[in-house]
Amino acid sequence: MERIGFVGLGIMGAPMARNLVAAGYELTFHNRSRRELDGATGVGTARAVAERSDIVITMLPDSPDVEDVVLGADGVAEGLRSGGLLVDMSTVAPATARRVHAALAERGVDALDAPVSGGEAAACSGELSIMVGGSEQAVERARPLFDVLGKATTYVGPPGAGQVTKAANQVVVALTIQAVAEALLLARASGVDPARVREALLGGFAQSKVLEAHGQRMLDGAFDPGFRAALHRKDLGIALQSAREQHVPLLATAQAAELFNALIAQGDGDRDHSALALVYERMLR
Amino acid sequence: MERIGFVGLGIMGAPMARNLVAAGYELTFHNRSRRELDGATGVGTARAVAERSDIVITMLPDSPDVEDVVLGADGVAEGLRSGGLLVDMSTVAPATARRVHAALAERGVDALDAPVSGGEAAACSGELSIMVGGSEQAVERARPLFDVLGKATTYVGPPGAGQVTKAANQVVVALTIQAVAEALLLARASGVDPARVREALLGGFAQSKVLEAHGQRMLDGAFDPGFRAALHRKDLGIALQSAREQHVPLLATAQAAELFNALIAQGDGDRDHSALALVYERMLR
What we know:
Chain A has helices spanning 13-22, 46-51, 63-71, 76-79, 94-105, 119-125, 136-149, 161-189, 194-202, 209-220, 229-245, 251-265, 276-283, and strands spanning 4-7, 27-30, 41-42, 55-58, 85-88, 110-113, 116-117, 128-133, 150-157. By secondary structure, the first copy, chain A, is α/β, with parallel strands linked by helices. In chain A, helix 8 crosses helix 11 (229-245) and helix 9 (194-202) runs antiparallel to helix 10 (209-220). The termini of chain A are far apart. Chain A folds into two domains: 4-159, NAD(P)-binding Rossmann-like Domain (Rossmann fold); 164-283, Orthogonal Bundle (N-(1-d-carboxylethyl)-l-norvaline Dehydrogenase, domain 2), CATH 1.10.1040. In chain A, 53% of the residues lie in helices and 13% in strands. Chains A and B meet through strand 8, strand 9, helix 8, helix 9 and helix 10 of A and strand 8, strand 9, helix 8, helix 9 and helix 10 of B.
């Protein structure tokens, strides 16, 4: 069994690491907040994690964190031996993923970008959806780990492809949230029960998981996360940055990102992303 | 069995009328283009249809057509006796539906607004989704007809509520099309196979019927209608008009409507609404 390293024991990382320990892996971890993890060994730096591991998993907040933890001083790159593998499961810019991949390749270290969707609940139950970019060989090597952490692993292509897929996912989810918010607002403002409208629409071509789950959240005003609006805004920033690099005009995504800005400015960045509906309601007051 | 009148034998109306005849209803119809219908009786005016019917169904292109055919000279209102019922299954403005309802109520005639979704295929197979506004009594009276024409009838509320629901439906579908178009464009521009991205996204929270069906259309460049872009633009106009009347800011819907304007200006109003993706592709040339 390969020795696993884990850097980043946040809301997502901690339950993922726990699932790997429970599956019998020898696991070394590092974490800024010096959190403990039963059955695993904590060390002081990402480099020390990598020195004791064959495969290192990182689960960090944003692109600069990944660049720093992997390529910075006392980072993963300094500790992993040739033949090692980095699996970055953070959601970061595709450009960051490609940069990390190229820098590690020079040292004979392979890398995968493998962001996830499903949130904390899926991280705990080992039912994440995992979107992977990198070499097919490396994916096969990491597959036993993915099988512990997730219920569906999709290999999408070369380095960065996993992050591009995640960005596309976040674009679709954000715009569908906005679609449902506008539709239910129109119904209510027109004197029609939005619960019946949601019900009617679920039976037809307007059906989506977002209409089902977040449509209900909007009806109930139930905006405890879930997935925090501020994180979705960060992910849309990644999509827009990638689009800018490719000169692709994402008109609707840009507008949705601005509405998330408003929601965050209103002090609700820590609420569920479906709280985007509140920005509309507040425009009416 | 009640005697049925039918006005408007277009792409949708013709198969709907045929299904009613096949179900054994005595049917009188009127149609601008003087089309024939086996087993039914054609007459020269909407008034003549109404004079021979207990329930009149209208299936017409737009709000002015319905106002004209129902309330105009030689219209349905002049022919229906007190106790009659108008079922308008066109997609029109909620304000039009309420106006028609009020005008007929003065004559002792009941009315339902009962727009449909599902398109020509569902009209032919009798599997439309029907969203109904009006009195519950009138809905019960019309239910045997709805059971012939559709697979799901949802009663949503008072006069106009059916049209509000249809408008909300068209908002969600248009914005989800735009979401899928932006996501797949971002993937392709970033060098990632959009077919794999669609597949990965279908397994998670970004899932929708639109991603499934129209995502595939975009991958194949298969834009034969389906549902014509020009008609969807008309429906978004209804949503935006209703929103304006209620002072509700539908930011994303307004943007999507403008992109449909571009598609129509480019000569593609008769292609499927999923051809909205072409507007994005053409921005890149």
